[in-house]
DNA sequence: AAATAATGTTGACTCAGTCATCATTTTACG
DNA sequence: CGTAAAATGATGACTGAGTCAACATTATTT
């Protein structure tokens, strides 16, 4: 079930955008084209040998309207229609030279108008706007389900991991900043003592956004240690946790560890199940008071 | 000058949104209202005693069109118009009972349609969509320049600060992950030894987004230490750095420190100027090799 | 070979959007 | 105070958008 808040947010945006649509339209500058005409021109300029039906589909416009629009363009000598040699019923549409130069002028003026609009925004909002615009473009464009990808570490990742985990566990379990400090320290140590031969870290991303992580560090007595595994709630149930753990195990094996240890807490049920599935065995349970709660720490291990 | 990339991003979004607009419209469900009519209904339902001119302004529609639309609504007994007792030329518009129930039904069905659309998205994208929609709504709605606000620390802040600084200095100065580890360690220590009486941290926000930070910790011999000051590039030039430093100084004074120290690097010119303006004095310059570069560390101090 | 589907076009109709005009009323200003 | 300027609400005229139905023609499927 979709939360009403989500629906409201989208509807509010829809309203605002529609009310301010003029600000983003070609109508602003007194161009000789309507919005629909400009859209048709854009498609014709950026694709080759379109048919009318194809135009109607991509722009979600009425075929009849396309037909009439094209007729107007042909009359103005902006568009040339020639019969498709392969399909007798199809007509291949393309811009004439005049059509192309007219489109270029239109393009120029919309860019100028858009730039003027962006000029009015403070830089912080300009950045937010761009990011939001790119996000929405992706969401409306990519119909394929987003694939989670694993990647290596980049600058800024460590802090982000600590931050997301701190927020998550504060929200879900009420853990205090003590956990955040622990995570920050683990990550600081990770980098300070970093040995590329036998240590590593992975970030899981969807649409370029971090949705999970895992780290492999050197543990005690020839054992590797898996640390800071987490998956964003919204990204759970897609096997991302399994993927992260599997990757970590393989890397631990390649690094020559004889055993892979990890320490977790009994309340982290989702993580526990992932460890179980991966073959880890629960060795020890030790109650402790940390992060503002009475918890049961668990030591798990996997022979490699 | 606005980067062409920003303009392209916004235009691309504009195109995609327009092409898919139908998906977000009242047209989807076979409602008896056009988009414009639905917008007028919405305004009438959510505000009281609107005049036609007011409607035309908020919806950016032609007064003539409003006039005709209202006439249709009055004929359908959805809207009642009564003369304004104060202004003889004004007409106060409001929904009739039938208008209200019709609007409620419309509202219901658009919410359902919107929910159905959100259902098709994977949860990760749903979250992104919501966030982006809220951002854009704010940007198009708030015309007032965004005010930077200072706030205390919340879960997740520490990691975020470390992450942003690491990314920033990696980008601007090519600093290595060594800096990230240092930042993470400083923040871990901050929390581990946290003494609320004489230590503190502040986050500067614009539109709820972090754009800067500063921390006050206990230093040596009764002195306070200012650490991890930073301001996002896009938010610079608005006095946020000054505000952060001033806040930190005041807090240091209140905590009873006799002196406020800080350590920085000569390349961080913007920060240096902030310290100078705040009255800090450069005490010592020590060359060092850190973060992958030859740097000159600087010790500054301010008598309180 | 016949049924089915897609393509491009046209007619009919309503609403959107723009522009000009107008009567009326309110506000601003010398 | 009186007049000029501005705002309000309405209307006519016109083009294009959007929807629906119909149609001839050509491809595709069975």
UniProtKB/TrEMBL annotation, chains A, B:
GO terms for molecular function: DNA-binding transcription factor activity; N-acetyltransferase activity. It holds the Pfam family Acetyltransf_1. This is GNAT family N-acetyltransferase. The keyword Oxidoreductase does not apply. SMART domains: HTH_MARR. Residues 6-138 form the HTH marR-type domain. Residues 148-304 form the N-acetyltransferase domain. Keywords: Transferase. Gene3D superfamilies: 3.40.630.30, Winged helix-like DNA-binding domain superfamily/Winged helix DNA-binding domain.
